Amino acid sequence: MVNPSLERLVDTVHITISSGQCPHCYPGPVTTAEEAPRSRRRPRGDVRAGLVAAGVELARAGGPDAVVLREATRIVGVVPNAAYRHFADRDELLAEVCTAAMHELADRMAAGIARVRGKRGNPAAAQRRLGAIGAAYLEFARAEPGLFATAFAVPRQHEYAARDTTDRTPLGLLCAALDELVEAGVLDPQRREGIEYPIWSLVHGTAVLTGRGPLRDASDAELRRIEARTLTFIAAGLA
């Protein structure tokens, strides 16, 4: 099923054809971008946004390998060459889709944090927020395996480490939670530097092992136990 947001974007960038019918539903001759009346052409930004949204849905369904320029243009309803007005190649589109997938993951983590009650600096609340981050990360990996794989398909270290920007990133949220543990007196300040990486590795490794690795055939109950043990192990190691 296509995401409603994608449908809205696609609607804004469909090329009008002489029959007035959707080219995906009624194959036939279409009016190209060059032939379309100038008054009916769509803003370039709409086409670019539509291609990225299409790429996200392709990734959601099939992971990073499914993100193909020609298929994205087909979904949006523009000629294949139109993609090259916005992206140099497939890798450039994939990079944008990776960023979008990373932001979806970060949003899921932020939502988990928001559900935890308690003032900042409260030891128990700070520990629960860290646990909520890990649980949301694992939940996203289970629910959106295609997007999860895509989020890490292209190295984007500048986004992972963007702690001083307004954009929320998975690593930025983890770092903020660890900083709160220091403020709350749970984590020794001398242990804080760089500790986000082994913690991230533990949670990410669990997600990969249970999602695409040798533990992928474990029962749901066993998967939940593995995830719970991972988060408990992390919490115990920080105390």
From TrEMBL:
Residues 68-87 bind DNA. Residues 45-105 form the HTH tetR-type domain. InterPro entries: Homeodomain-like_sf, HTH-type_TetR-like_transc_reg, HTH_TetR, MT1864/Rv1816-like_C, Tet_transcr_reg_TetR-rel_C_sf. Keywords: DNA-binding, Transcription, Transcription regulation. GO terms for molecular function: DNA-binding transcription factor activity; transcription cis-regulatory region binding. The keyword Iron does not apply. Pfam families: TetR_C_33. This is TetR/AcrR family transcriptional regulator. It comes from Kribbella sindirgiensis.
